[in-house]
Amino acid sequence: MVDALLRFTYAAADASAATLAARAVLGSAEVSMRGDALSWKQTSLVDDGISVSRVEVRGDAVRLVIGRSTELVVVHVRTGSAVLQNGEHETTLTAGGLGLVPIDARAQLQTSGADLELFSLPPAPLARLLGVSKHAVQLHAPRITPRSPELAEYLRRVGHLLTSAVFGVPEVYARDLVRVQTIDTLTAVIVEAFELTNRSEDATDRDGAVVRRALAELRAHLADPVSIPEVAEAAGVSVRGLQLIFQRQLGVSPLLHLRMLRLEAARQALIDEANAGTTVADIARRFGYSNGGRFSTHYRNAFGESPAESLQRVRSRPEQPLPDDSEAEIVRP
């Protein structure tokens, strides 16, 4: 439990004082400028899962250099503009713009006037989301701006929810479950928006083991109710970690793969029981479909014919195999 949200306020009129303010939340940081006139006003809210700083910067070519960040930092330009450089990437962020500084990255932000919001995430919430030890968080960050305007807008909204409705309301902030879940939601949006993945040294071997455990759990429950959280628990990772690993290894989500496994099992049951009086509705219910129409739609998308056509084919010509589904297209939901 967090006893209290820490709040720090700073007002700096020179680069040295601004550097001390930035280092309070960013660790390795340095502020410089081209002229002598500087106004740096900073308010930082510090929680064990995230820190949020609002900084008003005015001056001539003020530069904030972050050297080997120990945390993941998301920059939100509220007003004004700033240029973010991160390795080979450079982008100009205008009002509403979002940029990323990955863990271990060296980056710099330059502006002559902007109101900024900095979200700093330590490894712990990232590790919780990705299903790895916090010591194994080694992020691959292929981009420094969000992949879509929709995700960018959602990130801004969740960030505002955290700062105003959680951090800004003591009664809400005191509820650990609400606080942690809101931070995790913001972390999840950041992971999705910037397409972050983990790349620990043993990631390939570990991913393979997770997939094998998950598939064993899925196949054991083809005719039984099973939830993705239960599969993730059996595989030894978080739900988000399971989703990321399935996308990397199989190119589909766990839920979509479960659907395909059930459809394949249903198809085999139609073949085996075609002459035993089994109906399509029986097979649909057995493999988790209460809606026969939805079952028929998914089946046709996967195998190119309806389950009734498959059943009739086997009954009328049992010697002729069902069509090869090796090139069947899976229609994503």
UniProtKB/TrEMBL annotation:
Bias-annotated ranges (Acidic residues): 322-333
Lineage top rank: taxon: Bacteria
Residues in the signal sequence: none
Keyword terms of this UniProt record: DNA-binding, Transcription, Transcription regulation
InterPro entries linked to this entry: AraC_XylS_family_regulators, Homeodomain-like_sf, HTH_AraC, HTH_AraC-typ_CS
Domain HTH araC/xylS-type: 212-313
Region: Disordered, residue numbers: 305-333
Identification of the protein by name: HTH araC/xylS-type domain-containing protein
Taxonomic lineage of the native organism: Bacteria, Bacillati, Actinomycetota, Actinomycetes, Micrococcales
